[in-house]
Amino acid sequence: MVPEGWEVKPLSEIAKEKISYGIVQAGPHVPDGVPYIKSSDVRGIIEPDDLQRTSNEIHYKYRRSAVHPGDIVFSLRGNIGASAIVPPELPEANLTQGTARISVSERHSNRFHFYQLASAPLLNRVNALSKGSTFKEISLEELRKVRVLCPPLPEQKKIAQILSTWDQAITATERLLENSQQRKKGLMQQLLTGKKRLPGFEGEWESVRLDQLFAFKKGKGLSKSAVVQNGSHKCVLYGELYTKYGEVIREVVSRCDDQDGLVSKKGDVLLPSSTTTSGIDLANATAVIEDGILLGGDIIVLRPKSQHDPIFFSHLLTHTKKHEIASRAQGITIIHLYGSDLKDLAVKIPVCKTEQKAISEVMTIADIGIEALSRRLACLKQEKKALMQQLLTGKRRVNVETEAA
């Protein structure tokens, strides 16, 4: 049902110029040439500094597909449906055959239609119209016929303004998150290598083998099918070490009813022992800070022989020994890492165990800040998604006069 006062129009009718794609063969990169936009460059925004450039001659030949600030660029293949608005700092550019220009007329808001193109219903429609099995794309003819909702221009602008406010909050939070992650990275480079010492600590660090510090154990078979929502036991599957957890398991996400298997002890450090990608993915250590968790198969368990800080060691192995651990993995189709591969791995650690604890506390404080920003970012994105569902369909109307006053 079309909301009162709204219209439905094909994309071709909201464009002031014919929707078209660009250069078929851009040729070699020309450093002082004209930027052109490929489908892989369209990721919600366009970064001018990342664009390749073509010659002025080729650009002139395809001048019909030149884009300017405010135009919408739409991906026709690969990441089908991805779109972005040409930014002001890109005064003129061109496209490739895999992207289309939608120059929205003055009777419409380009930003409103950018948001509409990014909405789930429209993306589903575009995907349904895409052809091809291994290499899918939507034709210009089909794209031009895609129908979009068109509120009156003042309402379009108001909706775009509201959603832009959420985008600004998302961008600001992403920057804060990136800055926090970089700060933690800098701290790790200094503290985990002993280049920088926390106040009150001094003296040389010692080099020891892992088998001097840990007993090596292995988790026992737990499959995905064993995971149930209200199971009686907490459990960790090896795949979750890649996808669910960082350097510390603060909250176990899976449960099962199995009782047999290796159970965690507070202080364990876990590493996955197989992958189909690359050895570098196996160099991810995770600290366990509670007893009684069932540990699944393909998990290497480092169990401390004496009191050591597991959070210090999970960070140390992941961030200072990543490439050395990866180099010890073996295999082609499936890459394996065994506990025996790691026993003689040498690590440099503080002699004073209190220093291990102090470093891990710094890492924990950094992680808490990062996790809080990550949750805020996820919340903002979910709120924006809900707003788009309401505002772009007319289920929730904005009062332009009242809100503008």
TrEMBL record:
The keyword Plastid does not apply. It comes from Marinobacter pelagius. Pfam families: Methylase_S (PF01420). The keyword Repeat does not apply. This is Type I restriction enzyme S subunit. One of its GO terms (biological process) is DNA restriction-modification system. InterPro entries: Restrct_endonuc_typeI_TRD, Restrct_endonuc_typeI_TRD_sf, Type-I_RS_S_subunit. Belongs to the type-I restriction system S methylase family. Keywords: DNA-binding, Restriction system. GO terms for molecular function: DNA binding. Residues 3-175, 204-376 form the Type I restriction modification DNA specificity domain.
